[in-house]
Design a protein that fits this description.
CATH architecture: Alpha-Beta Barrel
Structural class: alpha/beta
Order of helices and strands: HHHEHEHEHEHEEHEHEHEEEHE
Distance between the termini: 36 Å
Strand content: 5-15%
Shape: globular
Number of domains: 1
Number of helices: 11
Radius of gyration: 19 Å
CATH topology: TIM Barrel
Helix content: 40-55%
Length: 348
Amino acid sequence: MQDVQSSQLKETQSAADMMSQQPGAEVKPAATMRHDWSSDEARALYEASFNDLLFEAHSIHRTNFDPNKVQKSRILSIKTGGCPEDCGYCSQSAHHKTGLKASRLMQVERVLDEARAAKAGGATRYCMGAAWRAPKGRDMAAVCAMVEGVKALGLETCMTLGMLSDEDVSRLKHAGLDYYNHNIDTSERYYDKVVTTRTFADRLQTLARVRESGIKVCSGGIVGMGEGPGDRVDMLVSLANLPEHPESVPINMLIPIADTPLGAAPRLDPIEFVRCIALARILMPRSYVRLSAGRSDMSDEMQALCFFAGANSVFIGDTLLTAGNPEIDADAALFAKLGIEDLALGDL
């Protein structure tokens, strides 16, 4: 495993040397795009010395992206609560007595009003999520109208609606959906410790349908659910070994919610979380790696390390579906301190 680390670090150092020898030059050597990672290879990278891991991840990040720009998304819960799935982390599951009341699907115009506000706040992508196992046919017309309306505002569109049939995918594609989010959550080995009402294979089947349609894939997971380092590594390997890397990879830190099975989960060590971001960047060099749920509990220093390690996308706004998120002013202050600018839609 040490040989694997040394070889990959040498390749990255060569790219970094090229950049240092040409001040001001735009040097973007192609990163190796692989879909054949082994768990052992990835685990060796994950467990490398922290400075070496960050150096490699940042060098790869810098060869593929402007390291001082971050893409901003906004997410809205268009149908909250009452979900029949039993995901152990989720406040919206009907299996958990969290006190969250189920709501009906939002009206299209209300969703578009929220999207207008998101665009004014700097978002370039608008994500809409419904607490469903899978959408019902009667709801698809409204969902597609939301997609069409948000696209007309000049925003990228993303939906997360649960599992999809071929017909669902076809309708979303026809409406012009840009991204479909469907997280794999964790490793296949640990999956049934978190969810029992659907399988890991169900998740992959939906991702395959989305990819085959030409809709871009947004898929990541959640860390801090009691899994081990090997599960975190294998989750990322599963994504990196898909036939095409997800264009967007959200990495969420568990927000423990009272009265859910994971409500008392111990907080994940911040360095372990940064290692996940760095490994995601190394395994999927050209994907947008989103620093997602859990930012409210992250220090400025922790977030700065995540951006250095390769995170280049965030959710903005004070809520993520039903969970908290940093206030706009707090994000603005952090980005100003770090010299990070918004990634414009034209730069994507």
